[in-house]
């Protein structure tokens, strides 16, 4: 199966950075941006996302298939396994028990599980829900990255959908794409009018300057004979700062005929290179180009994040240098230093002692038995009264007998 080559090439870079930081004992905060798809129903959003990963696992099809947000977290790790679970933030602990964790899912099982999980919350009659499905994919072949598949914009409620479905889906989408760290793939099918594209309208609301919006035109193969999307793809019609990328995803028939991603990519390439309206820009069209563009965005992001990481390191270096400076003129037998060191040690001992009594001090907390202040507390409030009561008891056993006189030994002068 075709993976995402560009993404796989980025992995070693990120890993190298991570290694370097681990060696230095610095935690690396390299949050990669999220990528979300926006567009009308059946525009090809799930198909585009799936093509980005290069794996075949999202439910796709006609009608409203994606009915809950799907938050797909790709996590780079040595073991390959997948978790699907409803988000804890929205659900109580009880539903957390429905966690489904299983190793070695086949992609088909993943797809089926997503469908079942969608139906579990929304019912099977086209209802929607903004409770996300979380899908975590651990694999050595992915970058730490979050992709968000969203339900498509619709206008007319069907089945069990609420009357204000349009409003509900809009606010659901906005909730994700309003974040500054979210790249927006605004998906519009070529066989509809771009000027009416809900995807572009919505993207413009949260990203008016088009800094993080990429136009994606799908279904170029389904345009009426004699029409083409050349003006759009050349970024002349409704220019976007980052332009448009045209793709040809698998059709419903391809999906039913189980055309695999490799075959689909080859067909897409052939389509662009043999089409007279697209031939001249064919190297800037298609799924591999979309992948490359997104990978470029990720690379840029990493590059943009590096200066702040470097600043952090430099600050640490400075403090270390200051420490070293202190010790440069250090003469261990200088009485002034000795006194200072002793005072510091006494002070340290005092703080340690205080902390132990408070029970807030030591790095390791003994969970097997009480220690420090807690032990004193217990002795005083439990053990001591108990011993007192026991003494009273003992007294009763001495009925009639005089208590033994206390013997006091004093050191002779
Ligand atoms: P979503 O609702 O936006 O997530 O759309 P899907 O990815 O589920 O796709 C909806 C339907 O359109 C599916 O049957 C896909 O096979 C089909 N489809 C998506 N993109 C293309 C395309 O570029 N060409 C063709 N012929 N069909 C497509
Ligand atoms: Mg979908």
Automatic annotation (TrEMBL):
Transmembrane segments: none
Family annotation (SMART domains): DYNc
Keywords: GTP-binding, Nucleotide-binding
CDD domains: DLP_1
InterPro entries for the chain: Dynamin (IPR022812), Dynamin_GTPase (IPR001401), Dynamin_GTPase_CS (IPR019762), Dynamin_N (IPR045063), Dynamin_stalk (IPR000375), G_DYNAMIN_dom (IPR030381), P-loop_NTPase (IPR027417)
Domain Dynamin-type G span(s) in chain numbering: 29-307
Pfam families tied to this protein: Dynamin_M, Dynamin_N
Family: Belongs to the TRAFAC class dynamin-like GTPase superfamily. Dynamin/Fzo/YdjA family.
PANTHER family referenced in this protein's UniProt entry, alphabetically: DYNAMIN
Name this polypeptide is given: Dynamin-type G domain-containing protein
